[in-house]
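Researcher: Next sequence.
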Amino acid sequence: MVEEFQPGSGLSRREFCMRVRSWVGAACVLLMLVSSLTPAVMAEEVSADRALVRWLARKDPRSTVRTDAVVALVSPLGEPAVSEFLATGYDYAVRRAADAKVRNLDFAKRVLATHRPEFSPAVFEASRRAVQGTDADREAFVRTGYAAAQNSDRSAREAAGEHARAIAETDRAFVRALAVNDPGAQVRGAAVWATRPGAGDGDLVEFYVHGWVSGGRLDLDSHRARAADNDMAWRATARRLVAEATEAEQAAREAAGEAAEQARQAAARAWRTVADQTTPARTAWGEAERVALAQAENWRLVAAAAAGATSPNWQAIAGSAAGNESEWMAEQTTAAEQAAYWKALYEQALAGEKEMTR
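Model: Next structure:
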């Protein structure tokens, strides 16, 4: 985690102090929202919130999101800091991630993580220098340095000829199958390009050596970013609706006479709205779990196919395949945890509606 606190991705001392002051205010909001929940639901929410922020701190593809999530997790204020990050800090981190300097750093890190030095030495070294260098170094890498290093590595591979000689018809057939059946859009796109009309063995080599793992990383990153962005929007709506339902329920309990019945009906409708609002999130996290399992199984099969291969092309994907399987299995766990959170909120809302209609 320490590596994420780099210029262009972290918080200044002034920003950190401002964030701490906002956490104090967030503590009051958190106490209001959870006061009407049962202890079991409160524990479920706190656990799910912290689990989500831990996931963002470790896995979000945007360095600013990872950094700010770490700051929230280690804050001495505890859960209010986590709550504040989910309420407002995440959106701020996403906006900062759009800054060109931050994007360049994230790009250089992704390239470094997906190019092995034994197969793409020029790209590996250029991306390493960019990550460790200045903003100007990273801008130059994004604009021209990455492409130049790619061309250098490809020229060296073509001159040696080892990778091209190792291409077999079964390798071509495998990539053609990936172009149709791979569960990841980026891998499918890379496979389509490698097997396009007019493509040669050199294009297949490029796919095996770096296009496959790069596409796999992009599929994983986009899955994570999409899930996080959607969940934050749903949570913002849920916080507002729960607060409104809690307020309506309190008003119903304090009302008397004919007004009490109308107030109870209003509170029941408010809790029903909360229950209905959980549907997109419960559905999406269920789908995310299905996708993660499919991806994990896909990469398990790839790792098995590469394990006994002697071709340098398959050796290039072997290590990454096993790692990708593990990453997707972790995504399945995260999806299951968040689905459980939304299910608990749904059940809480149904209980609230039932209570107001008795």
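Model: Residues 1-43 have pLDDT under 50 and may be disordered. The two ends are 51 Å apart (CA to CA).
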